[in-house]
Fold Adenine DNA glycosylase.
Amino acid sequence: MNKPLLNTIVNPLLSWYYSSARVLPWRDNPTPYRVWVSEIMLQQTRVDTVLPYFERFVAALPDIASLAQADEQQLLKLWEGLGYYSRVKNMQKAALTVMKLYNGKLPASFEALKELPGIGAYSAGAISSIAFGLRFPAVDGNVLRVISRITASADDITDIPVKKRIEQQVTEILPTEAVGDFNQSLMELGATVCLPNGAPRCDICPLKHLCLGFEHGIAAELPVKTVKAAKRAEAKTVLVMVCGDKLGVTKRKKTGLLAGMWELPNIDGALSMEECITVVKDMGLSVNEIQPLTEAKHIFTHIMWNMMGYLLQVNEARNDSITWVSPKDLKERMALPTAFKAYIRHYYAYLNSNTGR
Ligand code: SF4
């Protein structure tokens, strides 16, 4: 379906890409490593934001061996501000696997790439095609939108079978040469011309004469996307405060979510390290050391907590709102909501490494 139409977009799109695409550092020198780093950074993040991070990252860690060996703090620092830190941690796990199984070189195989931590079908398709010239599609949200509009498809792109069908349609039209350029041209069109949220710039589009969405005057209404009932998202900063071997906990209010339960102290919003130190000082505690922790998510019925956290070593001080509990009490006597499980683990890890408990 629509194959003849879609076949006709290949050449005009490639010509447009060669004359109009943005100059981006990973396109200049598309080694597998650089393509991989850029694709992971670009997930949920805009190109403008990624540019300085990319340059810094590949300057500090120029190859897979250096990424595999990097100290976690250095990795987090290089990623600081990009968010979704699991992305960079997965990259390091993948780098270690690549060192072990592939002699430090990313495998030129879609299937093998997809086996690596943090690399899904989209990223595997992008790396396979851009870095290795393999004929695999790289269908992200931009591409789903562009194809839906060109074919005037009113199918819901959040449906898995619809996504699969579009992947199949793109696979069928992939050129034998310049497959990576073609995948990038589709993404580039979506990112710079066929813009989301009802704002396609059809007047300057190289595919205007072929696009059914434009011809039928419905481009701005496409693609169809079911909006799932949204949960209210709340950002939280969780404090894992340790004094000696004791953990600081507080009691929640008697009403509302998790009423009356013990919890790890937490503050609304995503606090920087400096802001966090100020909050803790305001509690009357002095901070000896602070270290950022992994992000975590917890989903309640109507609310989702997007949590970040810090491990803080603090000096004992009087503070009526904080209760200091021993590991034994915590294990045996206190019930903390599952929402904090990810951070309680950091407390135990701290005890293991500092007191051998
Ligand atoms: S003509 Fe408009 S809707 Fe069609 S591909 Fe171009 S920008 Fe998108």
The chain has a mean pLDDT of 91. The chain has two domains: 3-221, 232-355. The longest strand covers residues 287-299.
